[in-house]
Each structure stands twice: as C-alpha cells, then as structure tokens.
Design goal:
Blueprint: E1 5-13, E2 16-21, E3 24-30, H1 32-42, E4 47-51, H2 63-72, E5 77-80, H3 86-94, E6 99-102, H4 104-108, H5 111-120, E7 125-135, E8 148-150, E9 153-161, E10 166-171, H6 172-182, E11 186-191, H7 203-212, E12 217-220, H8 226-234, E13 240-243, H9 245-248, H10 254-263
Parallel strand pairs: 1-4, 1-13, 4-5, 5-6, 6-7, 7-11, 11-12, 12-13
Antiparallel strand pairs: 1-2, 2-3, 7-9, 8-9, 9-10
Helix pairs in contact: 1-2, 8-10
Length: about 270
C-alpha cells in the first residue's frame, strides 16, 4: 500500500513565508529557506513553495529563493506562483525544483499543461486548483456543472485564479478532469472557504475529485489538527495532505501528525 504524504506549504510573499485566512489577512511566518530545512529534518515527505502574489503582480517567481531552498532539501520540492510559460517551468526546474504547480496560466491557456507534460513529464506537472463553493437556492440552476449536496446545502465549486482574487465560473471538478486528460500528474485542491480556518478540509470536494481522476490528489486548506488530516485521507480519499499554520507556528510537528495517522491505520513514512 502506498504511504500517504505530509507536505508543509510555504506561502511566500516578498520573499517571506506568510499565512492568512481565505487567502487574505496575511501575517509573517518566517524565512522560507530556514523553514524548509527544518521541515526536511522533521520528516516531511515533500515541500511546497508558493509565491502567492506573483501571478496577480504579473511577475516571475523569486528564483533565488527557489535555488537556496532546493540546496537545503533532500526531499521532493514543488514550486508554484507566477508560472506563465514553458520557459518559466524550465527555469524553476533548472534551479532545483522537482515539480511545478500551475493554476492561473493553465486555466487561461489549458494547452500549457499538455505542452509542459510532454516536454518535462507528467510527474513534474501539478494542476493547482483554487476553489470556492457556490451555493444554490431552490430555484437556481447550475446547468453543465457538477452539483453536490453538503451539510450547508447544494453547491458547485468555482475555479479562482490570480491567488484567489478572480472567479472564472469554471466548474472545478470538470476542470480537474480536463487537467488530468491534458497531462497533469497530480491535482492540488485548495479551498478559499476553508483556507486558514483550521476547521478541516473540504472533504466533499476532495472525495469527488479523487473518485473522478486517476492521479494523486493533494488536499490543501483548512488543517487545524491531526484529525483533520486523517479525515482528508479517509473521507476525502486524498493521497497527500498539505498544511501550513499548524506547522509554522509549532502547534504540531510533522512527527506528531504522522504518529497519530499511523496509530489510526494510515500508512505513512515514519
């Protein structure tokens, strides 16, 4: 049985790691290179570095930070933010990343996923999808979209771009399926509704995507304790769980999370 992965996420702005709620209200969480090294030593399975304002500010990711971070790591390292074309992907991989995650550029030009997967391999290309629930009233229709029932009511999931600032009106579940068809080797699902709340992941969305694609799904947004991560694996059927606040501020260590998961029957690398 494949082990489940625990992945600390470093959301970066202006060269510093930050953390917020619903992609806003950011506060400083430290130096990315220092944190990356600490998480490697703690037993993280992978690491994610996201330059969350790069696309919105129409600039390239900070390659010096990517290079310095990669030099400190012995685990797989994924980078995202501000990636617009094949040259950007090439430079990030050349500077030490093992994978790249694309959201905005891929939504605007889906063939970028196809071209990138053909050039660098699907294992390098992760489709990052930022989603937000759109709830329906009894009279509302969501023609052509995947509508599911949640405890809060019926809804579909809208894809957001530019770091969660712009709605696209695209059904996120259908977009995940298309991204995989185009060559994405993984899906990373982040929820604007759950981000930073520490109330758990959007497991309804995770489970649906996991059941509809044949590639690994990374759960993102909402982890507040090890039980939330357990739920992402058992209820959401995710293959990996990404978390930020609980690790950055020392609420839990990666070792504590993994021991909890192991005791509850989830295979992890200890």
């Amino acid at each position: 049985m494949l082990t489940k992965r625990i992945i600390p996420c470093l959301d970066m702005k202006n060269g510093r790691v930050i953390k917020g709620i619903s992609f806003v209200e950011h506060r400083d969480a430290g130096d990315p290179v220092k944190l990356a090294s600490e998480y490697d030593e703690q037993g993280a399975d992978e690491l994610v570095l996201l330059d969350i304002s790069a696309s919105h500010e129409n600039r390239n990711i900070l390659l010096d930070v990517v290079k310095r971070t990669a030099e400190e790591l012995f685990i797989p390292f994924m980078v995202g933010g501000g990636i617009r074309n094949l040259q950007d992907i090439r430079e990030i991989l050349f500077n030490g990343a093992d994978k790249i995650s694309i959201n905005t550029a891929a939504v605007k030009e889906p063939h970028l996923i196809l071209e990138a997967s053909e050039m660098f391999g699907s294992q390098c290309i992760v489709s990052s999808i930022d989603v937000k629930r759109v709830y329906l009233n009894d009279e509302d229709e969501a023609t052509g979209r995947v509508v599911l029932s949640t405890p809060q009511g019926k809804c579909w999931w809208d894809v957001f771009i530019y770091g969660g600032l712009q709605s696209t009106g695209i059904d996120a579940i259908q977009w995940a399926q298309m991204a995989v068809e185009l060559g994405a080797g993984e899906i990373m699902a982040s929820s604007l509704d759950f981000d930073g709340t520490k109330q758990g992941y959007d497991n309804t969305f995770l489970r649906t995507v996991s059941e509809k694609v044949h590639v690994p799904v990374i759960a993102s947004s909402g982890a507040g304790n090890p039980k939330h991560i357990l739920d992402a694996f058992t209820i959401g059927k995710a293959d990996a769980a990404l978390a930020a606040s609980i690790f950055h501020y020392g609420t839990y260590t990666i070792r504590e999370v993994k021991e909890y998961l192991s005791k509850n029957g989830v295979p992890v690398r200890l």
